[in-house]
Amino acid sequence: MLTADVSQAAEWRSLRKDLLKGDASFRAEKLHERAQATRRSILDMISTAGQGHIGGDFSVTDILTVLFDAVLDVDPEDPRKDGRDHFVLSKGHCAAALYSTLAHCGFFSADELRTFMEPMSALNGHPNRVKVPGVETNTGPLGHGLPVAVGAAIGARLRGNNSNVYVVLGDGEMQEGSNWEALMSASHQKLENLHVIVDRNRLQQGAGTEDTNGLDPLDARLAAFGLEVRIVDGHDYNALLEAMAPSTTGSPVAVIANTIKGKGVSFIEDRVEWHHKVPSKEQTTQAFQELS
Amino acid sequence: MTTAPALKEAPTFDNRQDFADELIQLARTNERIVAVCNDSVGSSNLNKFRDEFPDRLINVGIAEQNMVGVSAGLANAGLIPFVCAAGPFLTGRSLEQIKADVAYSQHNVILCGMSPGMAYGELGPTHHSVEDFSWLRALPGLDIVVPADGDQTRAAIRNAVANPRPTYIRVGRFKVPKVSDHDPSFERGKFVVAREGSDMTIIAAGTEVSRALWAAASLEADGISARVLNATYLSPLDEAAITAAARETRAIVTAEEANVAGGLGAAVASIVGQLEDEARVPLRILGLKDFAPTGSTQYLLEHFGLEAEDIANAARGALNRD
After folding, report:
1. Minimal C-alpha gap between B68 and chain A (Å)
2. Which domains does chain B have, with CATH numbers?
3. Does the global pTM surpass 0.90?
4. In this predicted complex, what is the ipTM?
């Protein structure tokens, strides 16, 4: 198990304080800085490793940044603390985005990011909770994170603490039946402490979601399953932050975050082939410039 | 050690009764114990648990993938979930959840395969849980526990609560006699010596332990001294007991109410087959090689050659090859 980077964690804590005190434009500016730094880490990791899922990493980066920098009640120095908020990245192939985010909060040293997918690295292509602090459950096969999040939300309630549970799913992943089993449970159990966030970038590995096995009307479907549905621009930091507010109906909250796969780099954005393509040297240089 | 002739006339029991009683007893003093099921309150004998702890029984309905995922989440939140569902659906339908969410994630979930083996007799192969050993043995980090009677079922639950770790326990429905009337306790990763013997060894799991003891009595009448090992744990595997059986006795017969592709017999073979030449004794593996035809559990045990006489005959055959 990797261990916390104490000074990075302290920096993150003071940044959080500033963020929560500041006004909306200050928050947006700070969160954007943090997200772009995460994207640069991701780019570095993927071009160094020669593999990874850059498109989905970039679409989910802003969501992860808002959650970790402004929402989650977690302690990088005590990642399994009783009563913490639980975060589950169900789209486990976007591990690089999660690792970068966790390192920037001090869950472990950012130096570790350079080992991404190297032999014996803790940072596997898909996250492993046994080795990486801040990872709650091992994902990779799709349709696994939401049931686990539902269980954590039920568990938090049974234990009588105020934990909230946030799970991020890819939109293509909503084709997995296990997610709909879990959504039924979430609303049946009235899990108002659960936020189900769908990274709606409208692309899956091979094609558009709507050209593969259409999800729309996703909002109506989630509402029909009993969730309180919020639709936001998944790259608007303040809108995302508002969407993470507690349930107003006593039902679990679904956030459809409309995103752009590959967000932040012009030639990667919204292109299906960039699901797991690796940028060349020249492309990496250009991408760094665009993200700076 | 048990005396077999008395065993054959002994009353038989459904292990689910002991399972439920023990779970309730432990839940009274340990509020972290919860039960999770898939519309299987009745078939898992959880009615009394639900009555006493209504909030701590989570029935997710007929949704096994979600059931195991939810249980991993409950464990993640610090609870000790006992997942109670018919073995075939628990292990087959949610195998990937058991792999990724429980074994690989090391979430301390106790998976209770109710009515395993061919307990559902005439309901057929869809309802038989005979692949569980093969499937689950392939998962590192998951204990596989096979109690042979009600008292051992209780002991298995006590062990799981005292030291929670990812675990699969078979909870039998087909009635079996008590085979551990003196001391039902057992240790992680160890077989229990159910009967000492020096000529050959029978290694049996679950239902087959009673059959193995009867077989040993039958062999004794022929002057053959049979050691009987109760394979309470399939994972971790008791390699030392298997190795000792191969070195100290002249043949090994394994018996399991499971498919032989990757179960107890296959596990024993993988140890014995890699021993030095002198220790590589003749081995007979009894179990299923096909989907079961229509028949009651008892009928099917006979059909697949899993009754006491079949074990005894396999032992005689293996010894004659010496």
Report:
1. 8
2. 14-171 (3.40.50.970), 192-319 (3.40.50.920)
3. yes
4. 0.97
